[in-house]
Amino acid sequence: MTNNNNLGIHSSLNLYISDQAYVLTSATDNQSQSLTINRKDSQISLSSPGPPEKFDRLVNNVAGLLGIIRLMKSDYLVLIQSARKVTNVFKTAVYTPSKFAVYPISLEPNLSILENSDERYLLSVLKAHLDHALDKTFFTYLSKTHPNDPEPWNLTNSLQRQGSITKQNKQADGAVSDEQQEQPPWKTSDDRFFWNKFIQTRFIELASQPNGNQASKFILPVIFGFLEFKSAVIKGKRFTFGIVSRRSRYRAGTRYFTRGINSEGDVSNFNETEMIMTTFPPNYNTQANGPTDPGNGRSFVKAGFVQTRGSVPLFWTEINNLRYRPDLKIIDLPESLEAMKAHFDQQVSIYGDQYLFNLVNSSGYEKAVKDGYERAVKELNNPRVHYTYFDFHQECKGLRFDRVQILIDQLHDQLVDQAYFFQEFSAGPSSNPASKVQKSVVRTNCMDCLDRTNVLQSALAKWVLTFQLKQAGILEENESLDKYPDFMFLFRNLWADNADGVSKSYSGTPALKTDFTRLGVRTKKGAFDDGVNSLMRYVKNNFMDGPRQDSYDLFTGAWRPPVSDDPQATQPLHDQHLFKGPYDHHLIQAIVLGFVIFLLIFISATFTQKRSLKLAIISLIILSLITRYIFQHGMEFVNQPRLKGSTTNATRHRILSYNGPSSRIFQSSQHGRTKINFDLFDHFVSLLSTNNHHHLNPPPPHSSSTAAPPLSSSISGPNQSHVLDEDKKKRLD
């Protein structure tokens, strides 16, 4: 039988650099073939073991190959230059990158490549994404050090999925089949959570060829999200407790630029969160007869519980336009039901029955999302999709977040039947079958699928963990975790860290309401921190998220550069303003500069020794006019994504520009608009823009001329219902 270690991924690489090629070799296995990347044509091939005969530079101890990505002028080799070990679970070491390295494959000098402004921008967002991913990506090398070790843990899979893969590929006598011996880690990885799969595509193609199986040892799947494990003790009994959140690479993005669903059934901000408990001790040793715990010979346990979160699966978006509360638009396309069906069909096939917990508000701004979701689920009429609404802010008003227990109590029987994954490892070379498997999943959402979702997920996790610890013999039947404050401190902080990790990836800031998650109560300091984080979200979501969205689209393949080298075939990047007006970037910059200048004049005229009431009043009036103008044309001042044609932007643009029957559209009124008429000021700016347009910045030749409908347009027709204002509300029929 072939040792499963042969299926593992090289844990240390040497990189040989020359004008002809980049050559990667294993630093620990001199019998494995090398990987060669030709710098003239970017072709990838396997070559004989060992270093090349000629090379100009050697980089030792590279932690892993992340992939190859094509930009406008060159392909780039992306490596994990170094990594640090974060934990050891089930005899599997888990790592996170501590440094990335990016090498241009083109033979052109770097300065020549970077003369292209598009290339500079793409390279900058790629490096920004890698910097952002430093503490959010995790991987294992998936190799055994001993035949009786547990199967190496592929982080893209939950414990239950991992167990199913292992079971399906074993023969009746317990031996590993030939088919299993040939299954490299990239083949058994969950496609949704294989974060770098797009930039590993060429290596996967090579590994799929008849003589390319050795390339599999270079293909390192990583997850993007959160991972943390802690040692815990209850009544002298030690166990390990941890959380893994896996973010889907489909429809990945930022808070306001990715909402809802696409035509393929992918939803934004989809995360699978798994809580894991194991009694494998830190000093776990592998003996010839299997896993043993020196001193007492007892068996070990591993248990998991999976929850999911994801955006409401409708075609909807929030239009960030400098207002604190963006405008909301929902459309009911002919394929809306098919998209939702595709989403839930996939979820049911993976997890079983879906228990949908919807936490959005039942009134005000969010009501249209609630009503649209309920109407769509009812129309879907899938007996395996179970919808429950919980008005979080109404039920938990007065900072009583503990009242989410009401929802758990309401669905007690269904959640008990849902169960969790639980497996006991007896002494000997093989483990017992899982005594429990999770048969369904709770899918929670609020508007962002962040703060309210975090509170409910942590409460449900605590409820399930109590059952798991009782089954493991750590808690007595009538005991509660609240009896052990030291453990609850660890539990709450781990879930709060997870909430922050998921939130930073989507909103750019830590989660809100984490004082309750950490302390079990709401505090004044927590409320203050929430205010600060809300302000930071406003700034980042309006002025910083364009490039961040581009970085997600570039890395995951939602946007791909043209393959032709013909300059005529190259679509230049440009600011993809979805609301088209007679304005251009230079004018926008001039308006912002004017605001800053008159602000300084106002400060000088008001607070310095040379005070001037007349100058202060004039500058204040001009500041008011400019501020009014900026907010009235807010979308022109928002930092928009620039990658033309990305699938993410295409879905959003389709929603914004949709002009179908009014009965199929919901659009909120423009919050924050005043009724003062500034037509004269608008007319002046429009004339200024028209007169200078050709001198300042002619429109890109490939830009779309389709404009979004006016944001103030109201719903008309026989099916109209109420405009979502504070006093008037409209919802989609």
Question: Summarize this, please?
Answer:
The protein is α+β, with helices and mostly antiparallel strands and 733 residues long. 33% of the residues lie in helices and 20% in strands. The N and C termini lie far apart (63 Å).
Helices and strands, with pairings:
Blueprint: E1 13-17, E2 21-26, E3 34-38, E4 44-47, E5 57-62, E6 64-70, E7 75-89, E8 92-104, H1 110-113, H2 117-132, E9 137-138, H3 159-168, H4 178-181, H5 185-188, H6 201-207, E10 223-234, E11 237-247, E12 271-278, E13 285-287, E14 290-292, E15 300-309, E16 315-319, E17 327-331, H7 336-351, E18 353-358, H8 367-380, E19 385-389, H9 392-395, H10 405-410, H11 412-418, E20 421-425, E21 440-445, H12 451-471, H13 485-506, H14 514-519, H15 524-543, H16 545-556, H17 585-607, H18 613-632, H19 647-657, E22 665-667, H20 679-696
Helix pairs in contact: 2-16, 12-13, 17-18
Structural account:
The chain is an alpha+beta fold. The protein has 3 domains: 4-218, no CATH class; 234-478, no CATH class; 571-658 and 674-696, no CATH class. 33% of the residues lie in helices and 20% in strands. It contains 20 helices and 22 strands. The strands form 5 sheets. Strands 9, 10, 11, 12, 15, 18, 19, 20 and 21 form a 9-stranded mixed sheet that branches. A 5-stranded antiparallel sheet has the order 4-3-2-1-5, covered by helices on one side. It has a 3-stranded antiparallel sheet with strand order 6-7-8. 42% of the residues are buried. The model is unreliable at 1-5, 171-180, 286-297, 576-583, 672-681 and 691-733 (pLDDT under 50). Residues 723-733 have a biased composition (Basic and acidic residues). One of its GO terms (biological process) is phosphatidylinositol dephosphorylation. One of its GO terms (molecular function) is phosphatidylinositol-4-phosphate phosphatase activity. Residues 153-508 form the SAC domain.
